[in-house]
Amino acid sequence: MAVMTSIEDLRAQFHRRVPRMFTEYVESGSWTQQTLHDNSADFAQIRLRQRIAVDMSDRRIATTMAGRDVAMPVALAPVGLTGMIHADGEIAAARAAEAFGVPYTLSTMSICSIEDVAAHTSKPFWFQLYVMKDEGFVADIMRRARAAGCDTLVLTLDLQMLGQRHRDIKNGLSAPPKLTLPVMLDLATKWRWGKGMLGTKRRRFGNIVGHAEGVSDASSLMSWTAEQFDLQLDWAKVARLKEQWGGKLILKGILDVEDARMAAKVGADAIVVSNHGGRQLDGALSGIRMLRPIVEAVGDEVEVLMDSGIRSGQDALKAVALGARGVFIGRAYIYGLGAMGDTGVTRALEIIRKEFDTTMALCGERDMHDLGLHNLILPPGFTDPPGADDPKTEPA
C-alpha cells in the first residue's frame, strides 16, 4: 500500500476508489467555482515567520472547542451523503473522530441515521441541522438528537436554498445512484466501493426516510428536500430554535461582520466563519479572508471557529493565528474516508496533527494558545473588512 504523507495523497486514492458521481459531489463548488478556488488560494497567500534557537520541547496543541476538550483544534464538519463515499461512512468517521479525541458532526443529510451513529459510538457527537418548513420534522429530529446524547447543535444558516452545482445536476446525483449506463460503467471499476455497499443496508438518507411525512423512498425524498428548505429562516426563528434545543448552539455559515454580531446577540455559543466550502454563493469572499474582521468584531462575545479550504495542518494553524479557536475539516477527512474507510479518516487527522505541531514548533511556539498575528506574514489589506477603503462607510 502506498505511504500517505499528505491530504493530497489521500485525495488521489479517493478518486481511484469512489464512483465519479460522488467524487464530483465532494469536489464541486457552485457556478464558476471562484469562491471554491479562493478558499485554498487565499491560504497560500499567507506566509509564516520562521523562528530559531527557541525551546521547542513540551509542545501543546490540545484545547477546547465549544466547551469540549479536544486533542487538537479540529472538528469533523457535517458532510451530506458521507455514507455514499464509503459504506456506513458516518459511523466510520464518527468512530475515528472519537478515538482521536476530536468532535464529529453528523449532517441532517446523512445516510446513517442519528440512531445508527449513536449505537456505534460511546461519546456525544454534534448534530447539524438544516431548517425545514416542516416544523414537526424539525422538532422531532432535534428530539432524536437529544435522545441520542448529542450535546451540541450546529445550525447551518447559509443554505436556505441550494446553490447550483453544475456537476451534480449533470451527474444526476442521488442516493443510492440511479443505474444509468455511464454510472454502471463507472461502478464496474470501483469494486471495493461496490462490495462495501452490498454489505450494508444503509443506502438512503437515514434521518429523513421514514421520519418525514410522505417520504418513503428516494424519489419522494428528492422532491421533499427541494421544497422543504426554509426560505423564511430569520434571526427570530434562530432564537426560537436555540430555546427549543436547550443545549449548546453553534451557528455555521457566518461570512459577514454584521451577521456575526447578530449571532452573538441571539446567544450562540460559537460561530463558524464559512462559505459552505464554496458551494453556495459563488463570488463570496473566502472564509480565511473574512476570519480576522469577524474575530475583531465579536471575539470577546462568542467563540469563533472557521471552515472552508482547510487542507493541511498549516492551514489550520494559520486560521488559529488569525484568531479562530479551531477549525472544521470536510473534504480533507472525506478524502481519507473514501480512500481507506475509518483508517483513512484517522490518517487524515494524523497528517493534520503532525503538520500543525511541526509548523508551530518551527514558528517558535510551544502552545497553540500563543499563536497569533506575530507568526504570520500577510499580504497588504488581507485582513481589512469589506468596504474599509470606501469613503461612504467611514464615520462622519
Care to give the gist of this entry?
With 396 residues, the chain is α/β, with parallel strands linked by helices. The protein has helices spanning 7-17, 20-27, 34-45, 82-85, 89-100, 114-119, 135-147, 166-171, 181-187, 191-198, 218-228, 235-245, 257-265, 287-298, 313-321, 331-362; strands at residues 47-48, 63-65, 68-70, 74-76, 105-106, 126-129, 152-156, 248-254, 270-273, 303-306, 326-329, 376-377.
CATH superfamily: Aldolase class I
Number of strands: 12
What is the domain total for the residues? 1
Q: Could you give the order of the helices and strands? A: HHHEEEEHHEHEHEHHHHHEHEHEHEHE
> So how many helices?
16
Strand order, main sheet: write it out.
Answer: 4-11-10-9-8-7-6-5
CATH topology: TIM Barrel
Uncertain stretches: none
**Helix content percent band:** 40-55%
The biggest sheet, with number of strands, parallel, antiparallel or mixed sense and barrel status, is: 8 strands, parallel
> What percentage of amino acids are in beta strands?
5-15%
Q: Please state the CA-atom Rg, rounded to the nearest Å.
A: 20 Å
CATH architecture: Alpha-Beta Barrel
CATH class: Alpha Beta
* Classification by helices and strands: alpha/beta
* Assembly level: single chain
Shape: globular
Termini distance? Answer: 65 Å
What average pLDDT do the residues reach? 93
